[in-house]
Amino acid sequence: MSTRAPRPVRRNVVVLFADLVGSTGLAERLDPELLQQVLDRYHQTCTAAIAEHGGVVEKYIGDAIMAVFGVPVGSEDDALRAARAAHAVLARVRELGAGLAPVLGTGLDVHCGIAAGEAIVVDSPGSGLRVIGDTVNTASRLQSAAGSGEILIGDDAARMIRSWARVEAVPPLTLKGKSAPVRAWRLLSVESEARHQDDDQIPLIGREEELQQLAQAYRRAVRGRQCCQVTLLGTPGIGKSRLVREFLRTLPEEVMALTGRCHSYGAGITYRPIAEMLESLNGHWPAVSAEIEPASVRVLRGLATAPAGSGTAGEDPGVEEISRAVRGLFEALARRRPLAVVWEDLHWAEPTLLDLIEDLASWLMDVPVLLICVARPELLDARRTWGGGIPCSFALELAPLARAPMERLVAELFVRRASAAEVVGHGPGDSADRLCRRIVAGSDGNPLFAELLLETLSEEGEDAPPPPTIQALLGARLDRLGQGERDVLERAATIGNVFTSDELGVLYRDELDDRPRMEEIIRRLVRHRMIRRGETPGSFQFTQTLTRDTVYAMTRKELRASWHLALADRLQERARTPKAHPDGAFEESSQADRARHLETACHLKREVRPDDPLLPALTERAAQALIAQGTQALHRKDLPAATALLERGRALLPAGHAAHRPLALRLCDAGLARGEAERAYAALDAAERMLPDDRRNRLTCAIQRETLAARFGTGPAAPGALRERLAGDPDDDLSWCRLHQLEALTHLAAGRFGAAEAALRDGLRRARSLGDGYEEGRLLSGLCELAQWSPAPIAEGLALCEELSARFRADRALLVPVLISHARLLALSGDVPAARDALATADQYVGDLRLDLAGAAVAQVRGVVEALAGRHAEAEAAFRRGAAALRAAGQAGPATTLRIYAARELLRQGRPEAAREALARLPDAAGELQLRAEVILLALRARLACLTGTADRALALAAEAEDRLERTDDPCLRGDVLIEIAEVRRAVGRPAEARAAAVRALRHYTARGAGLPAERVREWLATAGGGPAMSTAGEDPL
């Protein structure tokens, strides 16, 4: 990639503020020249202490000093370095004050503040280093709040040093300029080594094969009395050290194990791992030293006693002498018993130590020694020939844990925290399962990340950002990459977790000098284990989701905004080309990505360029894209997604935007479909706030409130008054469209299906005049469903179903209600096998898409089809399944209707007592049943009354059913009830009246084109119409 001038960089940093206590009093007492000398020495003392720990002094502000850790290159232990630097500053300033006390008349002391977080870092030759962001302000305010000799540390920084430091909580601090109290900790001390949590109590999971390989290397070293070197590679947190500890525990007691850790910074770190090994020998040293050459003993003593294992004490031996001495030590130890030597964090090792280890592996002879070199993959970048030429050497790389062992590990971690009462707000059950699933998915097979995520999400909730410790680990890895690698990763992270080189090319535009160069960088990133090849050809994906998230967070928002916009533009261009996927799935996915990119670009622009003149147009594009996606989700009955997308679109729209009116209706529809009245009404309230002076909007919302009242059963629909208010505005197509739907709802409740159909067709004309595909689709689906009960000929309904099947072929969610209606109409027309096929297809779609309520509708129509086919036991079971599903969804009224249908099927099976018991168990729903359920229940009770010999009651109930039947124009319902009435009248000895009722039923069926029930009535008329009473076990028409 091309070389660029220094540019602002977004990164995680740790900021340290240190201020001299009592400086005002000093200035008052001391001559300015003496004060300058004191402050110069103070500044030099602080600067030296900070530099020793890798900090950079950003500026001096009087007697205050601001230092930054994590620039120009971050380290995973930046917070620890800052804490150590603060303690060093405190100690050295006090030491300086003690030396100056005779002159000053008092000592010197400081107070410090430390904060970690995001900042913009600008480092240019002209103006030097600048660090900008809230992290700087927080560190400054913490320092001001700290008492003399005190170090206050922010919450994120405290989390990052928890294993190394002793801290105590202080009450939340009210800091100047901060909108909310700040959680802080008092830093008491910092240890030289981390306090390891007792994670060894949890069984090592998923590493059986690697344990066997280490055991095999040990056996080879012992059997052959030779030195075997195993290089154990793995990314941070993958479990390298945990595996080694488990392996060492499996070794025989006779084995001596030595461990030394390489350090990332500090003075004299080259041989510090060897000094740690010598220190761990304890009582073994006298006996061992007697077997080593005196010169080598002196060298080893020098390494053990020199500050920080620097190897510079005494005679200052050369590297050859040190290598010879260490080789002699290992030989002496291994002659006594097998020796296992662990070099931890070898990726931090100095080249001199790496040379020494290679020398040991090559020249240790006739002694059983196992060298375990624990490192990150970066070791092989520093030493590409590592392990080459050594007779017994191999590398073992730890891959991320597979899903199954990761689930076991997270479960173990969760149980351990729960037993310690550390898990807050996540008891057993769905909440805990959801938390564990998220941790498994988010940690990408990394045990340390899983533990840190569990800790953070348990304490702070599931919306908490990634733990700062993980961000520091990943940020440090990223900082060790070259600028070309960072450029590629930043663009890839903007694309998403999965990306292609073509998409990267879009984001480079004219900046890409050489595409083969980019391909080479991608290969290097694969080698660094930052990315891997994706599942589809030509794709790549981040090896860890958290890596992608960290890269994205560390990319400047202005760059992200421009890249998101470029990706959205590319997707829009592709949408104009011929569809590559006829089923539309690819296009829908692309449009969802386009909406996401536009929305993100909009939010980023608002944060960093709120005055951008192009922002209003971008906001409009993003809002419309989200609304379009939300509408698609609403069509396919993905109600949670629909609600979320539509609300996100609404959040982008400014007050007064005309889109608030139709958007409110869609959000209201989603709330209604979810049974959430509060959400549905809130959508209308929001529209009235956004359009306070819009008369049409007020009327549309009033119409929709009437619809909600009718649908939720809180009041009867009253469209008449609304029609009068709307009469003066014949061009308000949206309000008229919704009013016609309200009128249709009113007609449906009264059983006037023809009038309801006419109202829906009026609404359809208005929707087409609007050009509103959403309203048109709703109305067409409504007409299709209404065709099941309409007085129009069945042939018309079948034609409509076929038309909509073709129209909705790419959207299975929209196809389900069409298939259900089609099945019922097919069965009525006499094609039961085709009806069953349609229901089977609908059932498959319902299962695939998890459309639970639609599943209840499938069960209901399956009951109708099987009843028409004379399979009454199967029909009863289907009605019961549908009733249970509706009851579970809180739809008690429709559930009761299906229970009535199930009771009728019991009677048709010749089980009157079971039918009577089923009716007795119905809830008291007086006045709440739909007309359809009312008349069927009356007819069913009349039939049962016949069987108990109460003819008068049977006739009275039949008469009441017939009277109410006149209120509906559903021909099949009329036919169904009239044939039941015919049975009652025949049973009580009124054959002429029975025949008249059956003839009327036949007339209704014939007019409708319902061939199957019509044929059954003809059979009834031919056999039972004039003969003896028919058994209740006989086969009735529906």
Automatic annotation (TrEMBL):
Annotated ranges, domain Guanylate cyclase: 14-143
Keywords, alphabetical: ATP-binding, Helicase, Hydrolase, Nucleotide-binding
A Pfam family per the record: AAA_16
Domain of life: Bacteria
The keyword Hydrolase is annotated on this UniProt entry: yes
Signal peptide limits: none
GO terms, biological process: cyclic nucleotide biosynthetic process; intracellular signal transduction
Protein's name in the database: Class 3 adenylate cyclase/DNA replicative helicase MCM subunit Mcm2 (Cdc46/Mcm family)
CDD domains: CHD
GO MF: adenylate cyclase activity; ATP binding; helicase activity
GO CC terms in record: cytoplasm
Keyword Transmembrane helix: no
Organism name: Thermocatellispora tengchongensis
